[in-house]
Amino acid sequence: MSYSNPQTCCYNFANMDFGAAAGATTHRIAGPKGKKGRLIEVGVCVSEATVFATTLGIVEVGNASDSDAYAKLNIATATALNATFNSDDDTDAILSADIPADTTLLVKLTEGTGAGLAGQGNPYVIIDWY
């Protein structure tokens, strides 16, 4: 399989309360053995409108040594209910699209901080494996 004919995978994660101010949650993605990857998109399907005060909710895609080696999506405050906030909205979210073969990715979801927080959604990551 070459990059001209990749296997596209969408990794969906459970609803995350980005307004809980309780810390962070980390998920793992292991790509197909021996395949390189290309990060296509990172985003959140919003199920509760976002309100962040001090810091924004964040979705990072990285590895064991660098939590945002590939992406850091800063979810905007006032993102509406049922909206999708993704790397089209935060245009500098994808920091490095190329993923080496046999890399275990870590997807770190971090809640916003400050007073009056709100915001929930289902994070996702789309990767082409080749």
CATH class: Mainly Beta
Q: How many strand segments?
A: 10
- Tally of alpha and pi helices: 0
- At CATH level 2, the architecture is Sandwich
Residue share in β-strands: over 45%
Structural class: mainly beta
What is the radius of gyration computed over CA atoms, rounded to a whole number of angstroms? 15 Å
Distance between the ends:
6 Å
Number of domains: 1
General shape: elongated
Question: Low-confidence spans: pLDDT under 50, at least 5 residues?
Answer: none
Q: What name does the CATH topology carry?
A: Jelly Rolls
Biggest beta sheet summary: 6 strands, antiparallel
Could you estimate the helical fraction of the residues in percent? under 10%
The sequence of SSEs as H and E is EEEEEEEEEE
Average pLDDT score: 95
Summarize the structure.
With 130 residues, this protein is an all-beta fold. It contains no helices and 10 strands.
Keywords, please?
10 strands; 55% strand; mainly beta; 130 residues; four-stranded antiparallel sheet; Jelly Rolls; six-stranded antiparallel sheet
Strand and helix layout:
Elements: E1 7-12, E2 16-17, E3 24-30, E4 37-51, E5 57-63, E6 66-75, E7 84-86, E8 98-99, E9 104-110, E10 118-129
What would you note in describing this structure?
The chain is mainly beta. The chain has a single domain (7-129), classed as Jelly Rolls. The chain is built from no helices and 10 strands. It has strands spanning 7-12, 16-17, 24-30, 37-51, 57-63, 66-75, 84-86, 98-99, 104-110, 118-129. The strands form 2 sheets. Strands 1, 2, 4, 7, 8 and 10 form a 6-stranded antiparallel β-sheet that branches. Strands 3-9-5-6 form a 4-stranded antiparallel β-sheet, with no helix packed on it. Strand 5 (57-63) and strand 6 (66-75) form a beta hairpin. The protein is elongated, with a radius of gyration of 15 Å. The protein starts with 6 loop residues before the first strand and ends with a strand. The model has no long low-confidence stretch (mean pLDDT 95).
